[in-house]
Specification:
There is one protein chain. The protein is mainly α. Among the domains are: 269 residues, Alpha Horseshoe (Serine Threonine Protein Phosphatase 5, Tetratricopeptide repeat); 53 residues, no CATH class. 70% of the residues lie in helices and 1% in strands. The protein has a two-stranded antiparallel ribbon. A hairpin with a 4-residue loop joins strand 1 and strand 2. Helix 21 runs antiparallel to helix 22. The longest helix has 25 residues.
Length: 540
């Protein structure tokens, strides 16, 4: 891995908020890649790409293609290598394996690994192109050569690759995989966070494919990503209903449908999707002789959805995750706990802010791999102790700032604009809370207002709140406690724009409206009937 990519990967691992790649997905590691296990129902039957492979290689290739569309990268790479073994000169098998090292929606790319794979096909682009058995294969090779070109930054290569995919699609609009990958490349061009115009452009590319191939996993998957914000999520329900059926043995596919349901604040559907996703992953782990995981991206969303319904299951799952990671750290069991630590810290913080149950932080080794979890645990110290143990809150804020200084020194422009801004928002909010707790209430409240407005101005992020508890929710609670019903209602309404259907914000908004209406009905001259109407049937 070259230095630039290695540095970018380290930053993404270290960035401390839920927006990071695991923004992103439950990964399969080397253990998975080396095992003999292979998921069965992943949508391979909907793959229609014409190939020049022999029959033995064709089945593995199409299965790998379906897995690639499902972001099941390790499993996909295994299938593409099987196709290479069956047909060593089949260029698309090398194209597919190289493509498993490009994760555009997670801002990740391993150019060196991809170049090594392509090098097994031929010494240089010309030698590789000479092995193509059709014009279409030469076009796909040209696309992957552009994506992993030796020259250019990642952003430059992303945009050049997008141009190649657009040309391929224009030349053959009926090629459903060219359409799917052109849509994905468009989504991947939204550097620095979600840009609605770009995401709608991707949807425009993908929608015609949905009309002709309504069960194609790539079309369904990438349209869900295009629509997974509160405004556009209703459009994505069509895809969510199909995608879970298309790939029941792909954990990421099962989870992806919850991107739509969470944006719609459909907590039951969000819970069900992530129960299914976690079950798929744990069945795969059991088949490989591995223990059940209570942490991970899917469990994070699952616990959050359960907490939003007031279910104790969310608290129970969080405790299991934290206890599992604590035990693994104590026993120094490999490195798997590092990913679990991300989940444990975030799930514990949601449990604290949503239920008031604060779990003690995990004693994590101070390594780059644990930086994200340590930042999140420091964040929790501010929210937990600001009104009861100010020195602990201030220590948490100092730790957040120290970790951010390390991150900032390594961040490139794209990483800073996508992830660094959320670290900054967390710190700015922490400064405001500590300032209020130190006694300068007016200045602290004004600072919190600024922090909240800055959060709302950032691009919408899918999933549970990136900053765990929206600053507008904190403002609403402060205004409500001090009798400012109108200000409280406005703050809670803005919080719900950041976190649709969030239980505490909804309850706060209802309380603010009720208290405001109560003030009206207590005015002289208001009849009991009118008062009852104002209060929705609740008599004063």
């Amino acid at each position: 891995m070259n230095a630039a990519i290695a540095r970018a990967s380290t930053i993404l691992v270290a960035c401390a908020l839920a927006f990071a790649p695991p923004i992103h997905a439950q990964r399969h590691d080397e253990h998975t890649a080396k095992s003999n296990f292979a998921p069965e129902r992943v949508g391979a039957e909907y793959m229609v790409m014409e190939t020049t492979a022999n029959e033995e290689a064709k089945g593995s290739f199409l299965r790998g293609l379906a897995l690639l569309h499902n972001f099941e990268y390790a499993f996909a790479a295994k299938e593409f290598r099987k196709a290479q073994e069956a047909d060593p000169d089949f260029v698309m098998a090398y194209w597919g394996e190289a493509m498993t090292h490009n994760h555009p929606l997670w801002a990740e790319q391993d150019r060196d690994a991809a170049q090594e794979i392509l090098g097994r096909l031929g010494a240089d682009p010309a030698a590789r192109a000479a092995k193509a058995r059709s014009d279409k294969e030469r076009q796909w090779l040209a696309a992957v050569e552009t994506l992993y070109a030796v020259e250019g930054t990642k952003i430059e290569r992303d945009l050049a690759y997008l141009a190649v995919m657009q040309t391929m699609l224009a030349a053959d609009p009926e090629d459903i995989d060219a359409r799917a990958f052109a849509g994905l490349a468009t989504l991947g061009s939204s550097h620095g966070g979600r840009q609605i115009a770009i995401y709608m452009e991707a949807a425009g590319i993908l929608e015609p494919g949905f009309m002709t191939h309504s069960m194609h996993p790539g079309i369904l998957h990438y349209l869900i990503h295009s629509y997974d914000d509160p405004t556009h999520a209703p459009l994505g329900e069509r895809m969510a209903k199909r995608y879970a059926v298309v790939a029941p043995d792909a954990g990421h596919a099962q989870h992806m449908v919850s991107h739509i349901y969470l944006a719609l604040a459909d907590w039951e559907a969000t819970e069900k999707a992530n129960v299914n996703a976690a079950k798929v992953v744990n069945l795969q782990r059991a088949a490989q002789g591995r223990f059940e995981l209570f942490c991970g991206h899917y469990n994070e969303w699952l616990a959050y959805a359960q907490l939003q319904q007031g279910k104790q299951a969310g608290a129970e799952l969080t405790r299991k995750c934290v206890d599992q990671v604590r035990g693994m750290v104590a026993k120094a069991e490999g490195t798997e706990y590092l990913r679990g630590a991300w989940s444990a810290a975030g799930m514990a913080l949601f449990l604290g802010v949503d239920e008031g149950e604060w779990l003690e932080p995990i004693d994590l080794p101070k390594t780059p791999e644990t930086a994200r979890a340590r930042f999140t645990q420091a964040h929790a110290e501010i929210l937990r102790y600001h009104d009861s143990d100010l020195p602990k809150a201030k220590a948490g804020l100092a730790q957040m700032k120290a970790l951010y200084a390390q991150f900032n020194a390594m961040m490139d422009e794209e990483t800073r604009s996508a992830y660094g801004v959320w670290l900054e928002r967390a710190i700015e909010r922490g400064d405001a809370i500590v300032e209020m707790s130190e006694g300068d209430r007016e200045a602290g409240l004004a600072a919190l207002e600024r922090a909240a407005a800055a959060e709302l101005a950032l691009p919408i992020v899918f999933g549970p709140p990136v900053i765990f508890k929206p600053s507008y929710e904190i403002l609403g609670e402060i205004h409500l406690a001090e009798g400012r019903q109108a200000e409280a209602a406005e703050a809670f309404a803005k919080s719900l724009k950041l976190a649709p259907g969030r239980r505490l914000s909804l309850a706060g908004l209802d309380a603010a409206k009720l208290l405001g209406d109560q003030a009206i009905v207590n005015e002289p001259g208001i009849s009991e009937d009118v008062a009852t109407l104002i209060l929705g049937g609740i008599k004063p």
